[in-house]
Task: structure prediction
Amino acid sequence: MVNIVLVEPEIPQNCGNIARTCAATRSRLHLVRPLGFDISDRAVKRAGLDYWPMVDITVYENLDEFLQRHGGDDLWLATTKAPRAYHEAAYQDGCWLVFGKETAGLPAFFRERYRDKCVRIPMREDARSLNLANSVAVLCYEALRQQGFPELSGTGSMAR
Result:
């Protein structure tokens, strides 16, 4: 099992795509406020997110609350400033994959605190970064691959 953490996400479409990845992989989604969008039942229904009920979602008021509850857990921070590539990490069952907001990434103090747990996705030097939803999918599936894809079958379709 994988925990996906979005710290102050700003773009609703990214969160929707990430929630869909969580639904498909049985991953848990953790959202750290402030959020750049509404996740009320009414807003979710209006957006047509029919898979939203399949996602186990926890919302935290701020990063401090998240760290108080999970700061000692197996956290892995995704950042373009990481010393190692994502595939060099060993992701255990129940690990936490943490992603920052689209415009600024994760706060510097947080990256410093967990420096040895920061990972990056290799890419060309003149590319800023991948889309947040794509980054989540890359790391989530690597963590699940290392765990043997627990409770997932290989029969699903990529597109309908």
Remarks:
- The mean pLDDT is 93.
- The domain at 2-146 is CATH 3.40.1280.10 (Alpha/beta knot).
- DSSP finds five helices and seven strands in the chain.
